[in-house]
Amino acid sequence: MTPPFRADHVGSLLRPPRLLEARAKNLPAADLRAIEDDAIRDVVRMQRDVGLRSATDGEFRRTAWHMDFIYRLGGIRPTDEKIQVHFRNAGGELDFEAAALAIDEPVRLTETIFGDDFAFLAGVAGPDVTAKLTIPSPSMVHYRGGRAAIDPLVYPDEESFWADLSAAYADQVRRIAALGCRYLQLDDTSLAYLNDPEQRRQLTERGDDAEHQHLRYIRQINAAIADRPAELAVTTHMCRGNFRSSWAAEGGYDFVAEALFSELAVDGFFLEYDDDRSGGFAPLRFVPPGKRVVLGLVTTKRGALESKDTLKRRIDEAAKYVPLEQLCLSPQCGFSSTVEGNTLSYDQQVAKLALIVETAAEVWG
Prior knowledge:
Helix content is 38%, strand content 19%. The protein is built from 12 helices and 10 strands. Helix 1 packs antiparallel against helix 2 and helix 6 runs parallel beside helix 9 (213-225).
């Protein structure tokens, strides 16, 4: 009856062609927003029709799942420098290029980010479906550039940066809760990336403490959500990259598991478990009573529909490490973490969401 639900999903959904066409035309903001509104009404109706208890706006107003939020924090701006993230998939390799960021003023919240967007979503969702807001976790502000992105004249030491960042997030959490939000998800690739030895090597080379970075991130997320109202459920979603059906990191949750599951003060964990690169279920033994684990067993990276029997078998395997009543089911990631979307069709997306709802009903009743 409370989030996360037995059948749930991560957040982003494939953008409809008419929305992509509208974005390409560089329409006036009001005209584009009207088209977004119509597309969101349709996608919320789809989520309700397949039987989901929660609904997002599909992240239809964003270009990417994280930077649209991060660049709206005071003190943070994009730079002319470009960062390349190396992705791969079963067919080959590709790179995602994005602007680097600079933190050259004190970090602060200057507006309720996505406040109007959430208010619209909540109005469309109605009373029978829980409107869910997804935002990047505080970790993502740091992971993109590390200490090198922080102006030492503004923050001579990182402690003051972290204090301001968590305070800005705490302010965002309070404001969004005041708008009626009862389901907030903090999306975080960093806590999954840190399981990959190659990612830790890259962080070490740029001067970060890769062996302990996850402990810092856990502390700062906890500081950001410590004063949330009791009626606000907070989850986190961790994946290893999701761009045009490709990924950036590999490895199970073993490196971060004990601290992550025992110390991160969220209500539920959305975990990527759609193939071998996500590792096994053994790290779930650290999940304490009362926390929900949302098993991302259904891939968003391919259109082929999973077998219901296979999903049930894998849920049974996970239940060897954490009680069945603490488990839920979802896709492994969003369907469109960036505006480009993954390589599957709208109908395949809907079929996967319906499969999750049907399987969850048969497993948990």
